Every structure is written in structure tokens, then in C-alpha cells.
Amino acid sequence: MRYVPPTLAALAVLAIPASAFAEEEVAWRLFVADHDQPRVRAIDLESGATLDSFAIDGPATLYATKGKRAVYAVQGEQNRVAIIASGVEIEDHGDHGDLKLGEPALTDAVLTGERPVHFVEHDDQFAIFYDGGGTARIYPEAAVLKGDTAFREVHTSAPHHGVAVPMEDYTLVTQPNEADPKALPTGIWVLDAAGEKLGDFHPCPDLHGEATSGNLLAIACGTGLLLAKEGASGPQIEFLSYGADLPPGKVTTLLGGSGFQYFLGNYGADRVAVIDPSATDAFRLVTLPTRRVHFAVDPEQPKFAYVFTEDGNLLQLDILSAAITGTLHLTEPYSMDGEWNLPRPRVAVAGGEIAVTDPFKGLIHVIDAKAFAKTREIAVEGRPYNIVAVGGAGETHGHHHHH
């Protein structure tokens, strides 16, 4: 039988590595808490279909962690934190990630404590501060995802509206205002693995708001920011003052940038501050046309963040130039007058799209982030309010498995 040389096309197929036959897929899910009802909905972003709806004990604030495998529904009034498995798993293989999709599900694990409020993730652990008892509990996330809700606990001298941040074996925890525990905390202590105070007290009057960007943690104070990073002998802490040239005001909400190191904070009701701790001019203020309702940073396009303002507009903020570079009208006005927890829009970034809840209309507005244009809306029963996006891109392998 005569030898027939293989065609170039056939040789090309032989040269393709096995993983190339895997499909690259992008999947994003929105988890949306209702403002009035004790309910969280899981929505497929692409189709707009509700994947499931979970009855919990009260209206919730939602948090998703970096691992993306769970969404935590913090219900302060009910003394409970429910854990919803996202059904999204991205396994990192260095040169690519494997994406596994399952059904979202309300897990049996529930975290309980007196008035859980601040939820902070750091170093594969998360801390929940329980305002009612003035204690913080630190949970290793991998264990919690297996149903093990064991924690280590750190105590403060009085119940207060506080926060704790795990940093490896150490914990940063707030000091209540001794004169009036209902007032904001006055600073932080660093605790070692045994819960003992390490080093000096770090003053931070009117402490409220924290975020992480890269290896840097920032905590907002009335006078500036405390900056912490891990060091050989525990967290290293510095203070960054607002400086004399800034108008009166302070940061009380912080977000951490991804892609490069920066923080975004509010600075009064109608300004935001782009904060680069390494710059001489660390605080750059951006004046907004009206008061800020909510904001979010964009992990996929790191130079952008988005600010929703009370006139119903979503603003595109260029972090590098500290300037507003786009305005998109989405909703009727939502005034910032009145109670802080009235139903108002919330913003979440999901890959190349931005989702904005519209509680009065029962809608989620979906925006193409690159074009900065609205593409569609998703109708949601009730009053969609707090929202987180979970998902990403990865290879899906069907029958092909590799170890």
C-alpha cells in the first residue's frame, strides 16, 4: 500500500494541544436582594432568566468574595448571615482557568451573632463584625464552603459600629469611642494570633470605611487614611493625612482598585476622591453634578470606575485623569434626602457589562462597559436593591478532563 503523506491541515491538528479543544466560555450571574422582602434572586446575566430565588430571614446586604464560590447575605436585624453557593467555580491553571457551572443554592450553613454588619475579606479569610456584641469573628472561607462554620473571635471593650480585618495570623480591629460607643470608632489595634494587642494604638477618629488594593489596605478616618500592609513582624501601618489644601470633608466609604493600586472614596455628598497613596498629590477630588448614590470600580477596565448620582445618571470616571468621561441617563431621579436605607440604585460590574438596579421600576439596567451604552434591561419582581456579580471566563471541558 502506497504511503500517503498527511496533509498540512492534518499535521496542524496533531500539533494543537489538547486544551485547545476546550471551549472558552464567559458566564456571569447577578445575585440581587430585594429591598422589602427577605429574598435573594440568582439571575443569569446573558439571558436575564432567574435561575433561582432564595427565601432568607430579612432584607440583606450582599458580599461576594474573590473566590466567587459563594455570596454572603448579611441580615443585621435578624442576627444572621446566609451563605448562597454561586454555582460558579474557576480553577486556576496558570496559563488558563477552568470554568465549572452548577446550580446556585442556599446552603445549610448559617453564621449567627448579634447584629452582623461589616463583612471584610482578606487573605482567604473573612471577618464579620457583630455590632451588638462588639466582637468580630474570623472564618477561613475554604472551611465555611465545606459547611464548617468554626471561627476565631476577637473582642473589643464595648458594642459599637466597628470593623475587623484579618491579615494572615493578625487582626486589625476598631477601638470604640469610650465617651460614646454609639459614635464612630477612634482608631485600631493590631491583635496577634492569640488576640493580644501588638504595638501601639493607631488613632483614626471617625473611622468608617475600608478597602484593599493590591497588597495595601486602607481605612478611612476623619483626618486621613490609615494604610496597612503585611510585614515580617506583623502589619506595618502608616498614616496618610488629607493635607491642608483639601476642602473640609472626609472619606466614609472606600473601594479598592484592581489592575493598579488606587482607592476610590466619597468626599462629602457630591465629591469623590481618587486616592493614590504613592503620589505626591495623593487625593484628587472630582466634583459631581449632583449627590452620589453608589459607585463601583471596573476590574476588567481598571482605568474606569462608575458613579450613580441622584439625578438618575451613571457617570464614567477615568481614574488616571480623575475626570468624568461619560454620562448615561438610566432612571428617574432618586433623591439622597431621607433615610440612608431607602431603596436606591446599586451598581455592579460583571465582566464587560455594568448592572444597575432600579428598585422603583423593578428593573436591572444592563450597560456595555466598553461602549458605555445601555443594551437592555432585566425585569425583576419586587424591588431589586443590593446586587453583586459573580462569574468570569474560563475553559469548559465537556467530556475532556485533565488533571
From TrEMBL:
Name of protein: Metallochaperone AztD
Q: Which InterPro entries match?
A: Host-pathogen_enzymatic-act, Quino_amine_DH_bsu, WD40/YVTN_repeat-like_dom_sf
Region forming the signal peptide? 1-22
The UniProt keywords, alphabetically, are: Signal
Classification via SUPFAM superfamilies: YVTN repeat-like/Quinoprotein amine dehydrogenase
